[in-house]
Each structure stands twice: as C-alpha cells, then as structure tokens.
Write a structure and sequence with these properties.
The chain has 2 domains: about 5-265, Mur-like, catalytic domain (UDP-N-acetylmuramoyl-L-alanine:D-glutamate ligase, 3-Layer(aba) Sandwich); about 275-405, Protein-Tyrosine Phosphatase, Chain A. It has helices at about 20-25, 45-60, 90-105, 110-115, 115-130, 170, 175-185, 200-210, 235-250, 255-265, 290-305, 320-330, 350-355, 370-380, 395-405, and strands spanning about 35-40, 65, 80, 85, 135-140, 155-160, 190-195, 215-220, 275, 280-285, 310-315, 335, 365, 385-390. By secondary structure, it is of the alpha/beta class.
Length: about 400
C-alpha cells in the first residue's frame, strides 16, 4: 500500500493543479465551505502571523483550525485545532479517505496524481469540517495563484505578510511577478490586510487586485501598543502590527488590542528565533531565504553583539545559498557548514564551504556533513560566553531539534 511518505514532495512544476484539486474537494463534499477562511500569503512571516491570529481567536471563544507549512518536527504541526495537533491516527484516517477517492472512484495512479503537500491540505480541510470549526487560518505553501490552498472556493479575509524575492523559479524573477502571483488569492468582496514595510510596487499590485475584486484593503503600520511586547526577534513586531490591523477589521473590531496583546505575551513558535536551551543558549531560526536571513542578522547584531557566536548553517539549492552566506558573513562568528535533510533540494556542501572560506569577513569556518554531528561539534566548542545559532532551513533545524529533545 502506498503510504503518505511515498507521495512526492511537490507537483508545482506540473500544469495548473487548482482545477484537479477543486474536483477532489467537490467529490469530498466541499469541506472548505463549512467554515470561514482567513487566507495568508507572503514570503516571510506567514506562520507567525497565522499562529498569532489563531491563538487570539481561540482565546476569545472561537473554535479555530490552523494550517501551516512546512512542519519543523512532525507532520501533525501542520494541522491544529485550538493549538492541539492532529494525531497520526487521524492523519491515516483522512489519508485513506482521499486515497480511496483517487484510486477507486477516479481510477488514477495515486503517486502520479497528488503531492504530499496537496494530500496534507485535503486532510486538513476534511479534519476541520468534521470538527466543526468556526474559522480556519489557512497558510499558502508556495505563491498564491497556483498554490494548492487556492483551490478553496471562498475566503473572508486575505492577509499578506512581507513579500520579497523567493521561489523565483516558480513564481517569477521580479518582485512584481511574485506579488502578482500572491495577489491572486484575493476573493470577491473580501477584506485584505497587508503587512507594513512593503515595497511600493507590492502595495500597488495588491491594491489593484483588491479593487478588481471589490475587496476592502487595509495597510498595517507600526502600532504604538506593540512596545508592550518584548520579542527577541525584531521581525515579529511587523507580524504583530499585521495581526493588530487584522483585529481592527475582524468583526468590526470586536476583539480589542489589549485582548490581543494579553495572548501574544505568551507567544512562542517552534523554529522562529526560538531559544530551545539555556546553557549554552541555543537559538533555532528557520530563516531560509535572503529576506529572512537579513532579518536574522539584524536581530543577532542587536541582541548578541558581545557574545561568542557559533552559527551552524546550510541551505537548499533554490534559496540563493551563496548570497545568504554572504549576508551571514556580516556577523562576527565561528561558522559550521552542514547539510539540510533534503536530498532532492540539497546544495553542494563543498561549494558552499569553499565560498565561505574565501570570504575575507569570515575568520573561522569548518565543514561537517551530518547536521547532528555539526551540532555536537558546536557544543564541544562552546564556553560560558557562547550562543549557538542554527539557521538556514527547516530541514536543517528538524534533525537538530529532534536531537535536542532526546538528549539535552
């Protein structure tokens, strides 16, 4: 029997997948129509923004589903209701339901018909329907127009976090092309919220698409109340500003700013500048593109200037690894270059290592093929003044987090 893990990672390069996915949803009874949807897109900040919104709604009495990607430790993280992960048994149940539809009803080859991301999305939409949620916060996986999540029939709100250059092979080589792709999730008569500090062309494209869809659009700005929250990562303040703008619009401002802040004070998210150990301090940040790495560098410069820093890093080949490493080189640190856990998309480790060795700003860089061994090396080299950082990919963070959970 074909299992969930046998499915391909992505079919993004295939023809437009939306009509096929909508056909599947129709055959499954259109579970996406059983609740109201808050659809989020952007380059960075989607999961943080989506999770904040879901937690605030849940704390205010709503039954809330949350779909995010990619997961950091286990697949169940992608699908939650009121913060509780879906179980592996429930994943298997809905997987069988979708697989049976594809193979027995539509008589298609399962491996050739659906990707892993598409399957977990359909599982989520069914799960949320069966558990009668009020709202679903639905995070795009890649882009917008042809992203699997855009197969939904309608959404009440669309939220755009910071939009920058990423996934250029799939979404386009310019910011205008990428913004246009993401803007395609805007639905008729919906309400659109846009994160602060967007490029002018992004604002123009989103505004034109909102106007074409008769949707209302709101641009978030730095919020005076956000200083009441002490985030370690500077980029979370922009995400918070987006969230607070959303709640001025949601249900005519029913949930007040102070109610939002009361929830966010306890906000913690796996892999987003997350301190996972105290002595030595170990910080995991899943920044994986140039925009995210730039934000990581700024936060480290602001918060950890006087510490001895060991940075474990590695990138996927489609994430501009050389440019990302050059950005990291702004930090005075010891670097350990290693390999993210993704054979299909891994970048040549030796090439990255040699590039970083040649960078005059980097005084000390070493190479370790295995990411867990790289982490063990960092532990051995640490002292009382050391902070260990892991940055570059979810696929780099995952095995290290699992090791920490088991061994530290």
């Amino acid at each position: 029997m074909i299992t969930f893990n046998d499915l391909k990672y992505s079919l993004y390069d295939s023809d437009d997948r939306i009509p096929f996915l909508q056909k599947l949803l129709h055959q499954l009874g259109n579970p996406d129509c059983d609740y109201k949807i808050i659809h989020t897109a952007g380059t960075n900040g989607k999961t943080s923004t989506s999770t904040m919104i879901a937690e605030i709604l849940s704390h205010n009495g709503y039954n809330v589903g949350l779909f995010t990607s990619p997961f950091v430790i286990d697949q169940g993280e992608a699908i939650r209701i009121n913060g509780k992960k879906i179980s592996s048994t429930e994943i298997d149940h809905y997987y069988s339901q979708v697989a049976t539809l594809i193979t027995d009803t539509l008589h298609l080859d399962l491996l050739k018909s659906i990707s892993k991301f598409e399957m977990i999305l359909l599982i989520a939409l069914l799960y949320f329907s069966d558990h009668k949620v009020d709202y679903v916060v639905l995070e795009c996986g890649l882009g917008g127009k042809t992203d699997a999540t855009n197969a939904i029939l309608t959404s009440e709100y669309e939220i755009f976090t910071h939009i920058a250059l990423d996934h250029t092979d799939e979404l386009g080589n310019t910011l205008e092309q990428i913004a246009t792709n993401k803007a395609a999730i805007i639905r008729e008569n919906s309400q659109v919220i846009v994160a602060p500090k967007q490029n002018a062309c992004v604002k123009t494209i989103l505004s034109k698409q909102a106007q074409a869809k008769n949707a209302s659009i709101y641009f978030a700005e730095t919020h005076a109340n956000q200083t009441k929250i002490d985030f370690t990562a500077e980029y979370q303040y922009d995400n918070l500003a987006t969230v607070l703008q959303f709640f001025t619009v949601f249900d005519n401002g029913k949930i007040k700013v102070d109610d939002c802040l009361a929830v966010i004070r306890n906000f913690d998210l796996i892999g987003r500048f997350q301190q996972v150990h105290q002595a030595p301090p170990i910080i995991i940040d899943c920044a994986h593109n140039l925009d995210g790495i730039s934000q990581f560098v700024k936060t480290v410069q602001d918060k950890y200037q006087d510490y001895h820093k060991i940075i474990i890093t590695g990138f996927l080949k489609d994430k501009k690894p050389l440019q990302c490493s050059d950005c990291l080189a702004q930090l005075k640190a010891d670097f350990i270059v290693t390999q993210p856990d993704n054979d299909d998309r891994k970048y040549n480790l030796e090439t990255l290592y040699q590039h970083m060795q040649a960078n005059s700003k980097i005084a000390n860089v070493s190479l370790q093929q295995d990411s867990v061994m790289a982490f063990q090396t960092a532990l051995q080299r640490s002292n009382s003044q050391t902070v260990i950082f892991v940055v570059g990919s979810f696929y780099l963070a995952r095995p290290i987090l699992r090791y920490i959970k088991t061994n530290l």
